[in-house]
Design a protein that fits this description.
single chain; alpha+beta; seven-stranded mixed β-sheet; 12 helices
Amino acid sequence: MSVKIIPVDKSNIFNWRKSVRTVFGDIPDDDVVKRMVRDRFMIDFDNWNEPSDRLLGAMDTKTGQIVGTGGADQYVLTVPGGNTIGMAGIMGMGTLPTHKRKGIFSSVINKLHSQAKERGDVIAGLWASQSLLYTRFGYGLSTLREDWTINTNHTKLLKQKKESIRFELVDKEKALIEIPKIYDTFRKCQNGATDRTEGYWNYILYEDDSAKYNKSGNCGFFFVLAYKDNKPSGYAIYNFNKESGVAHEDDKGTLDVQEIISTDKETNIALWHYIFGIELVEEIKINQRAPSDPLYLMLENPRKLKRETIDGLWVRIVDPIKMLEKRRYNSEGNITICIAGQNQKDIEGTYSIETDGTNTEVKKVNKKPDISMKASDLSSIYFGAVSPGEYFQAGNLEIENQNSLIELSKMFFVQQAPWCNTDF
């Protein structure tokens, strides 16, 4: 058997997507594939003449079938201190069951990493369907997330909503104008957040007419904007999941909150008051919240907030010098770290980091390091999802002396925990 890595184009996009979705257990509709090309990949399907430089297929040369897949969306990611770096958003990774254990997955992802480096991306990131797959490729856990369920019958919010904040329910047309602007203000200040293109917003907020008008089950989206002092300052996107088509006190449904974003704490409190004030629901569900989200502390009975913490964004270092120089540090310092292992020969080595907190110089050096670690550990420490002390206690860091660990911890401490709520 021979397999060739090829770019994806109009002639094989349906075969590519079918291969992706076979791995994840469903069959794609052709119209859905066209919408993905138009919105998510921002390619005019009807006039698509050139191969994509971001989608790869592994083709079985005997059958012509695409048996392995992968791709890389384009993002910029906010790092500690507010600067941004380029990220290849790895997606669509999979190998058909007929072609497992033949090195196809490794070939595709390594090619995507090479392309990311050629483009000048600083990191690669992904959401892992199987987290154990990716550490061997250098990916470290860079953000955590929580999935929540709240029983609203037995708790309420402690703080009152400020009267200077008002709400407006809007249709999707206005939502697609105002919500991206609010999100963009938020993400520029949030460690770990990504940008979102116009096409991405269209893609995630798409509604199938067959489901949009449902009276039972999941209905279409509702959009509410929050205004503080008459300026947009937050939003919520939600829908209902009802057992029957008639909402009454004996047949309460679930309120599925797709997203709540605010640019200040007063708006955040107000939006939760709005959500808690929606009638004829017994349960609220919302996924991909930050572990540091203050809602738990805002509740009269916080036990009624059920929290499941799981892994969020995984990051692989592509350019360690640019990555380390881009973030701000908690204190001035000078430390030397060694990165080794995990099939990343191109970035292995010892690096000196000298910073005044804002301005940083990173150089590859030939000297004994203060601390040695895997690249994946540096990805976690960099954003602040996990502290150097935690990694040391887990046996993942080798230190020259205790002062080196103290210095690393001081420099890499973050005031704001990382959070990424953009799935891809």
